[in-house]
Amino acid sequence: MTSVMKHHFTNPPIKIEVFFYLCYCKQNCSDVVEGEIIMKIIDLHCDALLKLWEDRNRSFTNASKVETNYERLRKGNVKVQLFAIFIEPHFSSDIKFQIALEQIDLFHTEIIEKHENIKKIERWEEVDKLEEGEIGAVLTLEGADAFGNDLTKLRTFYQLGVKSIGLTWNNGNLCADGVGETRGGGLTELGFEVVRLNNDYGVWTDVSHLSQAGFWDVINVSDFPVATHSNSMTICDHRRNLTDEQAQAIFKKNGFIGLVFNPPFINGKDQASYDDIVKHIDHFSALGGVEHIAFGSDFDGIINYVKNLEHAGKYQKFINHLLKYYSEEEVKGFAYENVFNKLSRL
Ligand SMILES: [Zn+2]
């Protein structure tokens, strides 16, 4: 509430609207001054599990290296955080499932069991049941190489509560090619089978990182296509971003796009500002996506940052900036409601 404090109150201000305050100074000026509005956030992608797995001494509670640690999630008023299981491509195929299980174990032991207020979300309707002060934590999988061609392993992920599966990271695997695979293939028969299984289990198929051909294959068969962490290619010409046609195909399927806070995907540079993200919001809105825009920070998976958005604790500053350009209802949509409103169809 910095702007309120700078004003000349002598009594506590009276809150007359959600984010405006009436000044009650002795000069009786009756100014309406801007305060800060607090909004709930759903963040669709972070790599905290990888950070915890790489160094078991890191505390999820408050390690400064963990950008989505508990204290920062609370400060940023993140209500639901999706945690990706991610195994770096250099590991041999036969140990990938084991590494995934270790990350799932850390999710339970370090994130859920050590924090009374963090609740594991296994069914989407549980998001609606979170109480004041509680944070929902969701498991997701980035890269089908964790289960190879073993559908028993895939079903084990579903049974352990994985709610979103991205078929690839940047490279190719038995299901599909990623954006970094030069042959640019689409889905294999196994990839199609995985998407159909995702549909059956009400699990999202995440198209972030997927090749162009793979994207269109997913759009054709997926009931729940989403891009958890991608931006607009028209605004920033990067292979990880989505073309206008791709974005509109996601909107048409009632999916959503989580804007990613990685400067190389925002403006092609190592640094970016809030307003650089606004360009992506404006563009997706102009394409008819105002109700399909969300956030997928990629905190803990990035090494460059948007100024004043270096970790989850900065979310509310960013939200207040967006209120300069968009209505409160729209910003609430980007922050939480656009995703929340679509959960009921799962
Ligand atoms: Zn990623």
Report what the structure shows.
This protein is an alpha/beta fold. It folds into 2 domains: 1-36, no CATH class; 37-343, Alpha-Beta Barrel (TIM Barrel). The protein has 13 helices and 14 strands. α2 packs across α4. The two termini are 38 Å apart. The structure holds zinc ion.
Helical proportion? 25-40%
Q: What is the averaged pLDDT score?
A: 91
Biggest sheet features:
7 strands, parallel
Query: Which CATH-level-2 architecture of the largest domain?
Result: Alpha-Beta Barrel
CATH-wise, what's the superfamily of the largest domain? Answer: Metal-dependent hydrolases
SSE topology:
Layout: H1 2-6, E1 14-15, E2 20-22, E3 32-34, E4 41-43, H2 48-54, H3 70-75, E5 78-86, H4 93-112, E6 118-120, H5 125-128, E7 135-142, H6 151-159, E8 162-166, H7 189-201, E9 204-206, H8 212-221, E10 225-226, H9 244-252, E11 257-259, H10 263-266, E12 271-272, H11 274-286, E13 293-295, E14 305-306, H12 315-322, H13 328-343
Helix pairs in contact: 2-4
The protein binds zinc ion.
Zinc ion is lined by residues 142, 208-209, 229, 301.
